[in-house]
Amino acid sequence: MSRNDKKINKRLNDKHADSRRQHIDSSGRNQMESSLKDSDSGFWSLLQNTPIVAIEWNLEFKVTQWNLAAERVFGYAKSEALGRHAADLIVPDTYREHVNKVWNDLLENVGGFHSENDNITRDGRTIVCDWNNTTVVGKSGEVVGIISLVQDITERKKTEEALKESETKYRTLFEKSADAILMIEGDRFVDCNAATVKMLGYKNKKELLETHPSELSPETQPDGKCSFEKANEMMETALRKGSHRFEWEHVRHNGDIFPVEVLLTSIPSGGKNFLHVVWRDITERKRLEELESRAARLDTAGTIAGQVAHDFNNLLGPLIAYPDFIRERLPEDHPALKYLANIEESAKKIAEINQQLLSLGRRGHYNQEVFNLNDVVLQAIKEITSLTDNIECETNLTPDLMNILGGSSQIHRVVTNLLYNAVDALQGNGTLTVRTENYYADEVSGIYGRVPRGEYVKLTISDTGCGIPAEIVQKILDPFFTTKTSDKIRGSGLGLSVVDAVVKDHGGFLDLATKIGEGSSFYIYFPVTRESAGGESPDGIVGGSESILVVDDDDVQRDVSCSLLKRLGYKVSSVESGEKAVEFLKETPHDLLVLDMVMPPGIDGTETYRQVLKTYPHQKAILASGFSESNRVRQAQELGAGAFVKKPLTKRALATSVRRELDRQVVSETSQA
After folding, report:
1. In the predicted model, what is the mean pLDDT of residues 169-183?
2. Rounded Cα gap, residues 607 and 18, in angstroms
3. For 547-672, CATH number?
């Protein structure tokens, strides 16, 4: 058969098929009409009053039955709905194409179809309906209509969406919370968030959930009770009361013990009791509470010590003075002279301890003077030379060290105490290192608290000795605490408590780094003063009259830089961000920029300089930062910036760097060509 013959046969078959379909539709309608008449008194009389919407459609998707529930849900009376197409009655415009496809599928495939659809009521409201559609089959097996049972599930869907939204919010809170959150059923973990894994130091969630809860606590709690027994008590209390809050100690994966605040909440579900657990790491809170407690103890001890020392000092007078009087009246070979020598030595030790008590009690009652810490350090080192015969003493004192304000004799006592402690830790062998430096702190956190942002003179005294055990570190600043048992002048436990008191009186900060077997380093931060000590000379400092723009996000640093430069004769402007500097310079060019390198959250010094160069390709600049020289500093210098000056800025360092950069000859690309 040829291809044309096949096409002709196909067209004839299609024509016969259409004719058969029309015949079926016609006979189907007749049969359905007959069926519907029969059903009016039977089946539909049952569905008429049912609370479920019941609708019957003919093959043209037009309503042939419409019960009372349909009237209530969709708002159309039966007389209004009969004979109307679904698309003109309850189907939204955006859904018609899909409904027509579903309808055709139902007609071609005998059976049923379930769906959830948006529908439109007579008053224009959109509701969500659950549709169960079933085909009505005639005697010959052909589809003659559709019956739909419908439920309005709008409120149910809203509830489901609300629950879903609530679950999503909870899950987000669960996963993003900085606190550890867990779910416990019986003696096993059911779920936990990422903060729990991080807090406890496990590799992943799976590893933690496979761990038994008892493995996360030490054998005993701080009150001495067994962790296992106490945990059962806490859980029983939570189950009885609904929730329970308490403090606990846990164990990280690496064995470290840390304190947490626990909130246990009982959640009954499916006949089971789950425990919702929230852990908050309170290590920092405990540390601050201990610091506050230590400060209170120190104040109390200082008050008592000052009162006792004041009276005790008067009683020391005869012990120190009378031995000389007695010695003058005794022959040189008198046997009592050796006892006098012992009395004198003991009196000196008592006087030194009493002086420590007075320092602890006076708390800031001393003359204020401007002085250089290097002078005090050198004097203190000179005094302990006799104790360091087998100890190597290294010094690294910044020659251009800024001045501090306070009592030089009190600071001398601080330095001496720390040096003696270092010598004792070395036990006659090792290295003692003393360093001073100008230091700018953006923010430093240590064992004993936070060092606020600002300019400091930093003193570091290090030793390569035995180190300090962790259980002692938090106690060494307590008044009268000591680990020394030998008969030494500094066995009273006053040394470091006096150091801490004097440093605080000077507005300074003390911190410590130590490691068993490797030694310790004490760090003292004294606020700097811009005042000059007596006899200081500004020789060698050269100023100028050029214009300088200071760019720094720190208000104090900006004022300091501007004040120093104005004293040197320069015309000075300032802005607090890189973005403002770029815009400011477009209207008001300056001879030199003093650029802070770190200015969060905006652009840093390097990016500021890069953008300025687009307008002024030969712009001169120097860089300043409290951090050490970094890749960003080097990148800025590769762009053409000059010297890097480390904060805190001294007058000499700033003056030298500014003058050198201003005097530097810039060779343009044109002249090079």
Report:
1. 81
2. 77
3. 3.40.50.2300
